[in-house]
């Protein structure tokens, strides 16, 4: 005998809700899969707060059920002053006060990992991320874009700035989120416990391409990070192969250097991302595409089609050969 239609609908709805909840437990942007001390503290705080709230909810629902379902004689005790004070005032007050104190303690300890922090400046722009590494003891200052490289096991302090509208910075696997407000510098501290690539996202609506404003945090062993930072301060060598060499000349000739910088060349624009090491980056267009010759050529030709509203014009008048040459040059910048 088949089950009623309403029962089947209820089962389907329950399965859909369960699938949605389970889908949030993993993935590249899951706050339930922490990889750093601050992210772990946030998850623990969430679990404790949820458990405390659930306990109060269950108690209130149980008392409500008793009041509604019990015979009139059995409900008399629920109206006694002592029962009201104990169940309606004392118990919720004690539970909520304990949760408040616990939350304040966790917030005070968050971001307090020992060690000399690495300081990085991150500027949110429509619709990408400018990342600047200040000069250190052994390296000069330099910029990159849409990718933040950090060493594992070392606290990192991010100075968060906005160049235009309100953005919000969040790497769920490494820490909490923080708004980026024009005219103000907010500071976020995080740390990665082990190497990996962690996806982040702008979580404050900032315009037409807000959903396509992602970034990646690449955590490396300290030695690998030091080697990368030393190499990142150097200007790339001029290409030796014919196609990338032609692409370099075209890049400068068509005016790309008015908006972009490539160290060691005449390209010194600051309106767009610094492209010095773009060939070694994880993504193109703030997390939208992988970096390879095909996506680079497509982006140059059709940036407004692929990401409408961004500030880069489409160079759709370039020939296929010219696009491939410029893409080959950019891909070689590693």
Descriptive report:
The chain has 8 helices and 10 strands. With 334 residues, it is an alpha+beta fold. Helices cover 40% and strands 17% of the residues. α2 runs antiparallel to α4. The chain is elongated, with a radius of gyration of 27 Å. It has 3 domains: 81 residues; 115 residues, Immunoglobulin-like (Sandwich); 90 residues, Cupredoxins -  blue copper proteins (Immunoglobulin-like), CATH 2.60.40. About 4% of the residues have low confidence. The relative contact order is 0.11. The protein has a 5-stranded mixed β-sheet.
What would a concise description of this structure say?
The chain is α+β, with helices and mostly antiparallel strands and 334 residues long.
Determine the mean pLDDT.
86
Helical proportion, percent range: 40-55%
Secondary-structure element sequence?
Answer: HHHHEEEEEEEEEEHHHH
- Rounded to the nearest angstrom, the radius of gyration is 27 Å
CATH superfamily of the largest domain, please? Cupredoxins -  blue copper proteins
> If strands are numbered along the chain, what order do they take across the biggest sheet?
3-2-1-5-8
Note the beta-strand portion: 15-25%
Write the layout of secondary structure elements.
Blueprint: H1 5-23, H2 37-69, H3 72-75, H4 81-109, E1 118-125, E2 128-133, E3 142-145, E4 147-151, E5 156-162, E6 167-170, E7 178-180, E8 186-190, E9 196-202, E10 214-220, H5 222-232, H6 242-253, H7 293-306, H8 320-331
Parallel strand pairs: 1-5, 4-10
Antiparallel strand pairs: 1-2, 2-3, 5-8, 6-7, 6-9, 9-10
Helix pairs in contact: 2-4, 6-8, 7-8
